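Researcher: Following up on the earlier apo prediction. This time include the ligand. It's flavin-adenine dinucleotide, with the SMILES given after the sequence.
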Amino acid sequence: MKIDSNGSEYRDIWVLAELVGDDIHRVTFELLGVARNLASKLSKVKNREEEVVCVVLGSGLSEESRKRLFAGYADKLIIVDDEALRVFNDNIHAAVVSRLVRKYRPEVLISGATSRGRSVMPRVAVEVETGLTADCTGLDIDEDSGLLLQTRPAYGGNIIATIKCENYRPQMSTVRPGVFKLPEADFSRTGVVVQEELTEEEKVSRLRVLEEQTIEDATVNLSDAKIIVTGGRGVKGPDGFKVIEEFARAIGGAVGASRAAVDSGWISYAHQVGQTGQTVQPKIYIACGVSGQIQHLVGMQSSDFIIAINKDSEAPIMKLADVAIVGDLFEVIPEIVKLVRRDDELKKAV
Ligand SMILES: Cc1cc2nc3c(=O)[nH]c(=O)nc-3n(C[C@H](O)[C@H](O)[C@H](O)COP(=O)(O)OP(=O)(O)OC[C@H]3O[C@@H](n4cnc5c(N)ncnc54)[C@H](O)[C@@H]3O)c2cc1C
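Model: Understood. Below is the ligand-bound prediction.
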């Protein structure tokens, strides 16, 4: 939507919620946290109250879920509750969100860069005629203009660009899960609920869902893992990943992989960390045989503590790491696993 001369008819920061069955995807809460910050800054620039509005499309949203969304910093919920929204259908979701955008005119609309967000948001952007910045790694408000500053890697990760959408509304972005920290919930908060109906026209879709299946591998939940052990090209093959898996098992971690390892077919894409994989933020990230190219680093550099095991002391990951172990991973890892197991046995014996 092309903006009018002063832009004053657009307001509020919208977050498109993502439901996983009856639960809410954690990226929704991560985005509500950042939306709260954006709304406060925008309120100052515009000198009026800007709200955080969460748009929820689904079927049978529980009272508990509503409370969690308010506790996670939504001021208002726009809920469209209909059986036709129980199973995700990007045609229907995009049609409803586009109508709501035209009706309420949000200043900003953000969603998770999950497969659903990546499917719905471009459709909405085309429908309402505005821009969309995908896979943002930072969002802020310009203190002079009030414009959304959308930061993301560009040119294969070689530069970090900040993108503004000056003339069209809403300003739309997607953000990958794990990029922003989960805000602390505040269950004393409450808010307003607006119910919207799905129209008969919106229920008509070219997409028909025949069956739902959960693919085992798609559930590799790196975004929730406290410890991640990642293997790169240095593990040398699928058998090398058995060493990584054993290490991960010994210390209660999940298995990650570089794109080089995934592209070589040694492990599935669901494990990939980086610009075109998942963004992760574990307490401990252990990179084994990973060189640390920028496209990998953008997906893991916010980890609390980074350990790298590499034969090459000059590899970029070694400079980023809090602890850099120079050595052959096939010698170093079995030694660490032995120590961890001995430690476990000692603890049991005491
Ligand atoms: C648009 C684009 C998107 C991309 N997205 C991603 C992404 O999402 N994720 C990603 O990871 N990459 C991504 N890449 C690829 C990225 O540029 C690198 O090619 C890739 O990360 C390299 O993977 P690697 O570190 O495993 O392999 P290499 O760079 O080959 O590094 C292997 C490392 O293993 C070490 N090593 C070898 N043998 C041993 C041993 N026995 N013990 C210990 N160390 C050993 C070597 O010293 C070396 O440092 C992307 C690239 C582009 C252009």
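Model: The first strand starts at residue 11 and ends at 16.
Researcher: Noted. I'll compare it with the apo version next.
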